[in-house]
Amino acid sequence: MSDTAARPGKLETRDLTIRFGGHVAVNGVSCTFAPGTLTAIVGPNGAGKTTYFNLISGQLKASAGNVILNGRDITSLPASARTHAGLGRAFQLTSLFPNLSVMENVRLALQSRRQIGLDMWNVWSHHRDLIERAEQLLDSVALLSKRDVEAAALPHGDQRKLEVGLLMALDPDVYMFDEPTAGMSVDEVPVILDLIRALKARRDKTILLVEHKMDVVRELADRIIVLHNGTLMADGDPEKVIASPVVQQAYLGLAPVEENA
Length: 261
Ligand SMILES: Nc1ncnc2c1ncn2[C@@H]1O[C@H](COP(=O)(O)OP(=O)(O)OP(=O)(O)O)[C@@H](O)[C@H]1O
What we know:
CATH class of the largest domain: Alpha Beta
Number of domains: 2
InterPro entries: AAA+_ATPase, ABC_AA/LPS_Transport, ABC_transporter-like_ATP-bd, P-loop_NTPase
Strand order of the largest sheet: 6-7-8-3-9-10
Mean pLDDT: 87
CATH architecture of the largest domain: 3-Layer(aba) Sandwich
Bound molecules: adenosine-5'-triphosphate
Order of helices and strands: HEEEHEEHEHHHEHEHEEHH
CATH superfamily of the largest domain: P-loop containing nucleotide triphosphate hydrolases
Structural class: alpha/beta
Number of strands: 10
CATH topology of the largest domain: Rossmann fold
Protein name: ABC transporter ATP-binding protein
Helix content: 40-55%
Keywords: ATP-binding, Cell membrane, Membrane, Nucleotide-binding, Transport
Number of helices: 10
Distance between the termini: 32 Å
Pfam family, one: ABC_tran
Largest sheet: 6 strands, mixed
Radius of gyration: 19 Å
GO molecular function, one term: ATP binding
């Protein structure tokens, strides 16, 4: 517990709020996420889950409230600075280098993480290491055979896998997954879930997962928070949250859980 507090990756939102005109899409959400835990964020369509993510990662500017990472108030930082501070989001990362190959994308992400840049002293000593690590990552997202394909030419499912691979290469303190398996074929889904499982098993990262599939949530989550109309409606142990009447009524009515799953 005390070493959890000392580890990087503690993320906190305090009264985080955003209004679009008269509509409050995220309404005073206060939550703390600890390293070594996976929190699933669930709620009906339009509940504010993606907007909450956007406020944390800096894609949207809060109307009120704060985002605190590792004790530092990052509310006023743009998304890129938040990435440098340790927040990582699988969010259309491939659009950064659409015309580079799969391998080049991962290599650049690794380089940016290790800040090797163009320091010639380091280039050769790190080169083989980089390539090996990039190959391992591509293997873990089942894209090694497509290493020379241009990122933009990948089918949708492969692009999503590459996004997760790039996120792994950046290796942030906080991993944010927004429906990571959406739009994937049945045989592609396990690749991503295995990666999230492995990440979770390390128990040193803070993982946030927006996910509609309740079987996935049940298996992976240490904790569930429920958003409804932008408000934090429930927060706690997965089984208790799922069983709570308010969740059964407001959320699970829209997405029934198979009791024998
Ligand atoms: N840029 C925006 N301008 C105006 N309204 C917005 C904007 N972004 C989100 N909203 C509204 O905020 C609310 C929350 O949307 P959000 O996409 O965060 O929900 P969600 O829980 O992620 O839904 P889903 O599960 O369908 O992805 C919705 O009513 C949406 O229409």
